[in-house]
Design brief:
Radius of gyration: 22 Å
Largest sheet: 11 strands, mixed
Order of helices and strands: HHHEHEHEEEEHEEEEE
Number of helices: 6
Length: 288
């Protein structure tokens, strides 16, 4: 098992290292194709390789007009196989954090909750891989208030780090509805930038494909890079849709995405929130 994981990791790293070369070739072919279609002179930097690029363009079909990336490999089985999720906490969790982890387990279909105990991150990741877990979720707290969420996609990443705000538990919401465990429909609002699409994929693939008759809805609504999480069930009453909040509710903000698992300190950073980004002018990063 360990040798197989090592081999798969090497293959993943090789594909990732080849991305820049493939992307460069793709961009050069794109420039040449645009020049030929518009009847413009061939760009100077392409003249040396014009014949080779023309030949490559001739053999390209619709499937190969777009280059693949490591992101295609990360979620290659999404929608084909249901995700399998493990939810756990930081060390020595408070009763409130334990309750929040239980509620997350109910939110995410096909998930289990694990008592953290004395397990180290490397042990958790290794155990999850051995049991074919697709995502490991860790929740953190500050003085009994949940303030952090880590989503680690397995076996090789990515890992997204979120800060939580205004967390309200189910039992703190008045007139709360009963928790349904059917697969939910998902609503994503205002994730139109490249970073927004990346965050949307990380969150979307935590959930399996729902059945059409499902009456459960989970919403991720982005406003100024704060993602509001809401959880409802609905029913038709006299021709109208009646929503019932199920909870919990919270806001989340992504502050880092790493190209690796949560236990890999040496993993490359794909994106990180910088202090200078946190201004009114530059704040909207998840939406175009």
């Amino acid at each position: 098992m360990l040798r197989r994981q090592a081999r798969l990791r090497r293959e993943y790293l090789y594909r990732k290292s080849a991305e820049e070369r493939e992307r460069s070739i793709y961009e050069r072919k794109k420039k040449l194709k645009a020049a030929l279609e518009e009847g413009k002179p061939i760009p100077t930097e392409l003249r040396k390789d014009e014949a080779e690029l023309r030949k490559a363009i001739e053999f390209d079909d619709e499937k190969h007009e777009q280059t693949r990336s490591h992101q295609d490999d990360e979620y290659a089985w999404a929608g084909v196989q249901d995700p399998k999720i493990m939810v756990t906490t930081s060390h020595d969790p408070s009763s409130r954090l334990k309750q929040f982890a239980k509620e997350l387990r109910l939110i995410l279909p096909n998930s289990q909750r694990l008592n953290r105990g004395s397990f180290e991150l490397s042990q958790l990741v290794q155990a999850c891989r051995a049991n074919e877990v697709t995502d490991l979720i860790l929740v953190h707290e500050h003085r009994g208030i949940p303030d952090g969420l880590v989503v680690c996609h397995l076996p090789f990443g990515p890992t997204a780090y979120f800060t939580l705000f205004n967390t309200v538990m189910r039992h703190d919401i008045p007139n709360i509805g009963t928790m349904s465990e059917v697969y939910p429909h998902l609503i994503f609002h205002n994730f139109s930038s490249k970073l927004g699409e990346r965050v949307k994929s990380i969150l979307k693939y935590l959930f399996p494909v729902p059945k059409e008759e499902s009456k459960r809805v989970i919403t991720f609504a982005n406003q100024d890079d704060f993602i509001s999480f809401r959880h409802h069930t609905y029913k038709k009453v006299e021709g109208q849709i009646e929503l019932t909040e199920v909870g919990p509710r919270f806001e989340m903000k992504v502050h880092e995405i790493k190209l690796g698992t949560v236990d890999q300190n040496e993993a490359d950073t794909e994106w990180r929130l910088r202090p200078y980004m946190n201004t009114a002018k530059k704040r909207k990063m998840l939406s175009a």
